[in-house]
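just leaving the lab so this will be short. what follows is a protein written twice so to speak, once as letters and once as structure tokens for the fold. can you read through it and tell me how you think this chain folds. thanks a lot i owe you, the record is right below.

___
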Amino acid sequence: MFQGIMRAVARACEFLTTLYLFTASDFSTVLLPQTIFAFCSMFSGHFNASSWQAEPSIAFVTRLFRVVLWIWLQLLVLDVANQRLPESVAEDAINKPWRPITSGRIRTEGARQLLIASIAVTLATSNYLGVASETLLLFTFNWLYNDLGLANSHWFLRNVMNALGIPTIGAGATRIACRDLTFMAAPAARWWLLCGGMLMTTIHAQDLYDQQGDAVRGRSTAPLVLGDGAARWTVVAGVLFWSVASECLQLFHQPVFACSLPFIGQTTPPLSGRWTSACF
């Protein structure tokens, strides 16, 4: 009996490791920045009619758990949907051989079954947390990005899809963090549009590190189309532009503007050297 329990624990740990490896690339580039973004938005008070300090019904730790869980579930769906594609498997064999499919931890059919299960769990969780609309929008972007191939057709369309997808994750995370604080969508929407503009002009920084695999896949990315040096300078120009433009627009007070740091931090590359990348 003890050996049976240990085998069950070992299988559970193996399964959890596989789930982690599907999403590992996005922990520092999406999960952490979007979590910070959601709570900076909540703390600012610009999106809430009531103060978070009153803690009317939900403790901070509970808010944090819900936000992290929801973002991670979204990443799981997006990453499994992307990594199960044949061209993604060929790319990961070069860029990220440690991922579950390329390392042999799970077969493509197993990834398809995992995708179906993760979609169901994510929908149910999102409905419970009150962010089903954001989830359905992300699923639509996922379908356009992966299954219809918008990620590969043109580097600017790839940027646009990222600029739509990542702020949508931030929007859902912010709604969850502010759930019982009378969330105000109008000022938040203006901020999300600003963040989308930042991402659309800088997100191709994530493609600088993956050029070898992207070339094998035939993907049209800014570094491959414009050249490595030109792509780096366009990112620098985008960061400089939005750093000035955000201040000139004066949409929000200084505490909220600090929320832009996760976005700028995840998209700003060095002028030379290597860079980590996100999947979506």
